[in-house]
Design the sequence.
């Protein structure tokens, strides 16, 4: 929704917005664009009398325990008969119509892959528009209209709005679509994996015959999606596909049907980013960017804020303590993030340096405890783990019990920071993982580490 507001502002509209608990980097971006942010959903905002209310999927008809509406502004809009629409519908009608839409879907890696693809097209002279669910460091903004025909969009399977329960991505009508991976998530709206696969097939149905589907060949769930019907050109990547990588995760040849067509050398780590790169390269080719040029462009890609973003280092005798911020929240994403860092440290001869994982189960799926049993598996690459348990209705300590003294829990940020500081030693890498603001834990950790006596 923040990116959508930025697009509307760029298009010349006057834009205001409201939300609860807005946090950086999006809050900073919106203020820099001159978009007024209002805290909360009070009904008196109806007096602003906009031409259109664009409603995000956080809004519902829910009521508080005392019977009052949780979103009084929405009730006022309905009562007054004011015009409203969903974010995806507004995008479809006012931004995407007539463009070559390139949609990036998947349980994990959407933001990173969307940013990669936008950067490749930018370097290829395509001047793309884009909408990303984060802030790409290479662009400094999460969205822009662009001057070219292509528009790259992060395509989320989450529902559109309280009045439109279709997945967001069915509104986008892509001509090029990446299906990066598919696991069970969003347990608050999907009963099982099959329900999500059905939504992904709804997306497949919207791609024209002259379009291209770029699909992860290693995902059985995506093969089941395609088995329901596919009417477009198919480009598979990964083991078993025509697009593959050969080499280490940070330096590899790109091969298409066995022929080397490019080489990527970059600072990113992990198999997941290598797969993201293959998807971006295969998609970019569909709009005329040669694979060799795309691979070369990725060598300068600087990633996205909150994707293993370095937040600071504390110098110590014997080695620095490093603090990172990462958006990982699904168990698979947590495991992938930590495993990528572990492999990078090992490859650099830093096998003795430890990984400390700090995380909060904040997504709707994790809050429900649906994947609690997967947490020990997701944290295997961490030497120590620290879980923020505020707001959970399930026993995180019990879920982490198989990890023994390698895991600790805390019900508030301050004791969590104290636990981490007490455990930290020179050479440690502290990875803070959440899809929210995490109570400003990164700055609090750095401040506490600076003031802690060096051991």
Sequence:
């Amino acid at each position: 929704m923040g990116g959508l507001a930025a697009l509307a502002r760029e298009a010349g509209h006057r834009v205001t917005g409201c939300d609860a608990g807005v946090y950086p980097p999006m809050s900073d971006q919106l203020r820099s664009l001159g978009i007024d942010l209002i805290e909360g959903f009070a009904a008196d905002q109806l007096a602003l009398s906009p031409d259109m209310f664009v409603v995000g999927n956080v809004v519902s008809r829910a009521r508080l325990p005392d019977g009052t509406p949780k979103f009084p502004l929405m009730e006022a809009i309905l009562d007054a008969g004011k015009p409203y629409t969903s974010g995806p519908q507004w995008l479809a009608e006012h931004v995407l119509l007539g463009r070559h839409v390139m949609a990036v879907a998947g349980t994990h890696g959407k933001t990173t892959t969307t940013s990669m693809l936008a950067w490749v097209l930018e370097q290829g002279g395509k001047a793309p528009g884009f909408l990303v669910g984060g802030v790409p460091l290479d662009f400094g903004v999460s969205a822009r209209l662009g001057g070219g025909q292509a528009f790259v969009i992060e395509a989320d399977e989450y529902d559109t709005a309280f009045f439109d329960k279709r997945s967001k991505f069915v509104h986008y009508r892509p001509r090029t679509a990446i299906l990066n991976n598919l696991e069970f998530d969003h347990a608050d709206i999907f009963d099982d994996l099959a329900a999500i696969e059905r939504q992904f097939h709804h997306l497949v149905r919207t791609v024209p015959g002259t379009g291209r589907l770029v699909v992860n060949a290693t995902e059985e769930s995506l093969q089941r999606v395609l088995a329901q019907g596919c009417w477009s050109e198919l480009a598979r990547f990964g083991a078993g596909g025509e697009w593959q990588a050969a080499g280490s995760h940070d330096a590899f040849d790109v091969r298409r049907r066995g022929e080397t067509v490019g080489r990527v050398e970059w600072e990113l780590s992990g198999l997941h980013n290598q797969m993201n790169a293959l998807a971006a390269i295969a998609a970019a080719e569909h709009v005329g960017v040669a694979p060799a040029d795309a691979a070369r462009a990725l060598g300068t890609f600087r990633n996205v804020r909150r994707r293993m973003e370095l937040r600071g280092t504390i110098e110590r005798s014997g080695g620095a303590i490093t603090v990172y911020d990462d958006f990982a929240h699904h168990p698979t994403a947590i495991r992938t993030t930590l495993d990528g860092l572990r492999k990078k440290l090992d490859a650099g001869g830093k096998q003795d340096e430890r990984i400390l994982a700090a995380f909060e189960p904040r997504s709707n799926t994790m809050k429900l405890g649906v994947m609690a049993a997967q947490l020990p598996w997701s944290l295997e690459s961490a030497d120590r783990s620290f879980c923020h348990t505020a707001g959970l209705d399930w026993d995180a300590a019990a879920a982490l019990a198989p990890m023994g003294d390698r895991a600790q829990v805390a019900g508030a940020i301050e004791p969590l920071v104290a636990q981490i500081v007490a455990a930290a030693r020179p050479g440690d890498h502290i990875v803070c993982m959440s899809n929210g603001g995490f109570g400003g834990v990164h700055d609090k950790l750095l401040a506490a580490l600076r003031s802690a006596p060096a051991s």
User: Anything to note?
Assistant: The chain has a mean pLDDT of 91. The chain has three domains: 2-82, 89-298, 309-451. The two ends are 46 Å apart (CA to CA). The domain at 89-298 is CATH 3.40.1190.10 (UDP-N-acetylmuramoyl-L-alanine:D-glutamate ligase).
